[in-house]
Specification:
By secondary structure, this protein is an alpha/beta fold. It contains twelve helices and eight strands. The protein has a single domain, classed as Aldolase class I (TIM Barrel), CATH 3.20.20.70. An eight-stranded parallel β-barrel has the order 1-2-3-4-5-6-7-8, surrounded by six helices. Helix 1 packs parallel to helix 2 (46-53), helix 1 (16-32) runs parallel beside helix 12 (239-251) and helix 7 (138-149) crosses helix 9 (179-197). The chain is globular and about 45 Å long. Bound molecules: 2-phosphoglycolic acid. 2-phosphoglycolic acid binds at residues 9, 166, 171-172, 210-213, 231-235.
């Protein structure tokens, strides 16, 4: 039985103090929940977020990470830096990073490998565009993203990876995939992982849905057979909405 995971992706929202206040508001719900709860925050918020989450079940995640250990990479953050402040997860390959910051399947793979080597759980994002969906290449495209992201990763390590299926056309648009559409692709991702690593890894790996998940539609999505949680943007910024989603995962 896979434990559900609810991750809030703040994106470029919240100052350190605003983030700490938000965490204070979700702590009680998170501690009572049967799912894992993660907040993915801007780099600058991470130390305050870790402090605010101390003694609670909430884990803190970065939204990105560099794949090199150190060096002349102005503006970048390493796995070691994240670890030292108490970060235990990182998002990798979010579609916004792929679209605006030249993230490629190759860098997604390098970052995933580096995160695992540093005991940071990678939340690897994949997802098709609207035109890919309309042209019938969703499954080919997702299979390619998943296979390239997991290159050179052992079965043992792959079990720790979290994959977030986020159709680009559903992110921040208010257009959620239907429960069936989301589950169909999450099940397909599990099938792809099974082809790569076998049944055990496929059954252990957590696969999330992301894209306009909110307090209203979360229960339906989280009840699906292959959706093990959510990566939530907009709705994770409002404590009552995020708490409703956490409770939906507990009750799913
Ligand atoms: P959204 O974002 O929930 O605001 O659509 C999800 C994401 O991009 O992770």
């Amino acid at each position: 039985m896979r434990k559900k995971l609810i991750a809030g992706n703040w994106k470029m929202n919240n100052t350190p103090s605003q983030g700490a206040a938000l965490i204070a508001d979700i702590k009680e719900t998170a501690d009572k929940a049967s799912c894992d709860v993660v907040v993915c925050t801007p780099y600058i918020c991470l130390p305050a977020a870790v402090k605010a989450a101390e003694g609670s079940k909430i884990a803190v995640s970065a939204e990105n990470m560099h794949f090199e250990d150190k060096g002349a990479f102005t503006g970048e953050i390493s796995a070691e830096m994240l670890k030292e402040v108490g970060v235990t997860y990182t998002v990798i390959g979010h579609s916004e990073r792929r679209q605006y910051f030249a993230e490629t399947d190759e860098t997604v793979n390098l970052k995933t490998v580096k995160a695992l080597a540093n005991d940071i759980i990678p939340i690897v994002c994949v997802g098709e565009s609207l035109s890919q969906r309309e042209n019938g290449v969703t499954f080919d495209f997702i299979a390619m993203q998943v296979k390239l992201a997991l290159k050179n990763i052992s079965a043992q390590d792959a079990e720790k990876v979290v994959i977030a299926y986020e159709p680009i056309w559903a992110i921040g648009t208010g257009k959620t995939a239907t429960d069936e559409q989301a589950n169909e692709v999450c099940a397909f991702i599990r099938k792809t992982v099974k082809e790569l690593y076998g049944e055990n890894t496929a059954n252990t790996m957590r696969i999330l849905y992301g894209g306009s998940m909110n307090a209203k539609n979360a229960a339906g999505l989280l009840a699906q057979s292959d959706i093990d949680g959510g990566l939530i943007g907009g709705a994770s910024l409002k404590a009552p909405d995020f708490c409703t989603i956490i409770n939906a995962a507990t009750n799913a």
